[in-house]
């Protein structure tokens, strides 16, 4: 029996939010694991684990977008999928060790439930796409299960193969066969960002467990919270609304690719950055008295680069005019790694917060109505808080170079346009 959905947009249900809480527990586990082993090998391990987990979480977001869990049977299946994710999360600390088989079994449950529920959609094009997607997901899950029975280089190879297979799958299946309900899709991913940021705040408390509340620890916590709040500001100050409009405005064949690039690949960088942020704050607490807290400095630098670039790619993919500015700020943030390595991670957090605050102010200035840029080449231009709309212009950037941010805008335009060309040239 297939499940039919009214053509109107749906909203995120309570069972989906419940599901997300279990997924965020996996993020907490990853944060703790990275804080315990903040090395290159530890970071690669986190990337492989999170890359596989994030792919299937995204699969469930696409699933509930196509098959809303309104019927009791569907909700029960979602709960079974939650149980699978819980097993996966519990096995994360030793996924490359004694818990590898448990991780693989939990992941297999998650994959089977996902495919089984998706078969209830009434859209023939989605079923055809699933017919190609399902085997790829099953092979990846079996690779992870097999990895649990191995060790050494073979285990790393199987994990890497599963990771790569997941993320190249879209180029071998008819992704355009899926339809996207924009309001639900954007809201679902916005909520996971909000919950993940909340998890990073929890990490502030984890880093202070069993310690005296000294001024330095309090300062570190406040700076970490401020950086997380700034990231929240960047995404939720109109970014989600612009994303929804972009998905609504795209044709049926292109909207799934936009959703994949912006909320799949780019969100992998954003959420991965949040994980490293939380681990960095914990490391910062632990190394507060050190004269050269290099590890916490490296971690803080890493999370910032991924989060900023991820948000920038989301903007560029969906045609948002602030994308170039955000990528420029990401490049500026790279230099703060020297502060973390040479001075302290606390100093680096302060510098990062200053750069982020400058970026927020710059975007606010650019989003305000600009009276002196009212016309460009004799054609009317309307500037709004959400962006710039140029009537009778092929591209609003043609007029933005007239305003006071001229050189920065031109460079940001080139970055954004290059990303747009890459996205539109994809299948």
Query: Secondary-structure element sequence?
Result: HHHHHHHHHHHHHHEEEHH
Given as residue ranges, the uncertain stretches (5+ residues, pLDDT < 50) are: 1-7, 289-321, 370-412, 421-427
Helix content range of the residues, please?
over 70%
State Rg.
22 Å
Number of domains: 2
Mean pLDDT over all positions = 75
- The DSSP helix count reads 16
Which structural class is indicated by helix and strand composition?
mainly alpha
> Strand tally, please?
3
Tell me the fraction of residues in β-strands, as a range: under 5%
Q: What is the distance, rounded to the nearest whole angstrom, between the alpha carbons of the first and last residues? A: 32 Å
Strand order of the largest sheet: 1-2-3
Principal-axis shape? globular
Biggest sheet, open or closed, and with what strands and sense? 3 strands, antiparallel
């Amino acid at each position: 029996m297939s499940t039919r959905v009214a053509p109107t947009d749906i909203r995120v249900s309570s069972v989906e939010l419940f599901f997300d809480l279990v997924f965020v527990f996996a993020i907490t586990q990853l944060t703790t694991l990275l804080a315990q082993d903040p090395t290159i090998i530890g970071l690669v391990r986190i990337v492989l684990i999170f890359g596989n987990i994030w792919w299937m979480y995204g699969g469930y977001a696409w699933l509930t977008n196509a098959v809303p869990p309104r019927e009791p049977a569907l909700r029960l299946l979602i709960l079974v999928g939650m149980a699978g994710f819980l097993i996966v999360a519990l096995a994360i600390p030793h996924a490359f060790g004694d818990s590898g088989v448990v991780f693989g079994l939990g992941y297999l449950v998650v994959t089977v439930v996902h495919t089984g529920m998706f078969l209830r959609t009434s859209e023939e094009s989605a079923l055809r796409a699933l017919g190609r997607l399902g085997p790829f997901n099953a092979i990846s899950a079996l690779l992870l299960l097999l990895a649990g029975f191995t060790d050494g280089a073979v285990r790393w190879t199987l994990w890497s193969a599963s990771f790569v297979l997941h993320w190249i799958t879209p180029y071998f299946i008819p992704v355009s066969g899926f339809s996207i309900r924009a309001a639900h899709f954007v809201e679902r991913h916005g909520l996971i960002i909000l919950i993940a940021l909340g998890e990073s705040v929890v990490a502030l408390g984890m880093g202070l467990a069993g310690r005296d509340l000294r001024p330095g620890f309090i300062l570190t916590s406040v700076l970490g919270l401020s950086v997380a709040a700034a990231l929240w500001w960047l995404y939720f100050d109109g970014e989600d609304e612009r994303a929804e409009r972009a998905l609504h405005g795209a044709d049926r064949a292109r909207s799934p690719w936009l959703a994949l690039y912006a909320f799949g690949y780019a969100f992998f960088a954003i959420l991965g950055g949040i994980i490293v942020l939380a681990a960095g704050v914990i490391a910062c607490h632990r190394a507060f008295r050190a004269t050269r807290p290099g590890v916490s400095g490296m971690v803080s630098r890493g999370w910032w680069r991924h989060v900023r670039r991820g948000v920038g790619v989301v903007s560029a993919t969906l045609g948002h005019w602030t994308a170039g500015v955000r990528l420029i700020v990401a490049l500026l943030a790279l230099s703060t790694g020297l502060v973390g390595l040479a001075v302290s991670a606390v100093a680096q957090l302060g510098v990062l917060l200053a750069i982020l605050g400058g970026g927020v102010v710059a975007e606010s200035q650019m989003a305000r109505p600009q009276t002196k840029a009212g016309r460009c080449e004799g054609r009317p231009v309307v500037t709004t808080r959400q962006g710039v709309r140029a009537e009778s212009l092929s591209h609003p950037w043609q007029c933005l170079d007239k305003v006071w941010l001229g050189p920065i805008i031109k460079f940001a335009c080139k970055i954004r346009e290059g990303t747009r060309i890459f996205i539109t040239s994809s299948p």
